[in-house]
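Reviewer comment 2.1 asked that we show a complete input and output for one of the modelled complexes. We chose the nicotinamide-adenine-dinucleotide case, as it is the one discussed in the main text.
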Amino acid sequence: MRLKDKVAVITGAAQGIGKATARLFHAEGAKLMLCDLEGGVLESAAKEVSAGSNSVNFLPCNVAKREECEATIQKAIEAFGHVDILVNNAGITKDNLLMRMSDDEWNMVIDVNLKGAFNFAKACVRPMMKQRYGRIINIASVVGLMGNPGQANYCASKAGLIGMTKSMAKELASRNILCNAIAPGFIKTRMTDVLPEEIKKSMLNMISIGRFGEPDEIAKVCLFLASDDISYVTGQVISVNGGLYM
Ligand SMILES: NC(=O)c1ccc[n+]([C@@H]2O[C@H](COP(=O)([O-])OP(=O)(O)OC[C@H]3O[C@@H](n4cnc5c(N)ncnc54)[C@H](O)[C@@H]3O)[C@@H](O)[C@H]2O)c1
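Response of the prediction step:
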């Protein structure tokens, strides 16, 4: 078991990549605090992941709201005594061409994808510094590296997350808090299900491995970055994109 007795907080854990990560972390012995905006779906995900054990806790939370993030970390500490791992996974898209993009579309995506990760990192960092141990994993995106038409807000949020990861890595390395990012390519989740068929087709043509990714394929890299195997790895962005972008 690679995460035995470690405590992990995962945001956006109700479905998709977050839920797959929760399932794998639980199987590897971690205690979990799961959060998501969608309380009902989160509750059933937590039940499914825990499979009757008492090592999975959950709290509905909007990552864009600082107080709610602090309350989630507080609850994790009350339940399990400490927090070792943070996976900033919650994310949204509000796609539009720049000339049509509203302030709301811009602000919402930045608030959830970038500020949300800042809020959770800030809430975790003090207890992690005290215990001189931490793993922070930010789920960025391939488009934060390569850009994408119609996603100026989303790409900016994910590129921002990469810059934040590197800064945090430099600030926190001396306290044994390692911060890394994952840049997934096209992964089969609710976020990509809604895309028009012709966009999916043109994406598929660009993927060297010739298929879309599964949430589990991101979860496995997340497990590696959460584990003790990365004692000399920080400030890195691991691309998991089937060769979509190199
Ligand atoms: N699916 C992909 O192809 C892909 C590619 C690159 C990056 N990503 C990133 O991976 C992460 C997970 O996405 P996914 O594909 O599993 O999508 P998803 O829509 O299945 O899951 C995202 C989860 O985040 C939650 N969420 C949204 N806003 C929130 C908020 N304000 N507070 C708390 N929770 C909130 C949603 O309710 C949902 O459960 C996101 O950050 C996404 O940007 C996904």
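The longest strand covers residues 177-184. We note this here for comparison with the apo prediction described in Section 3.2.
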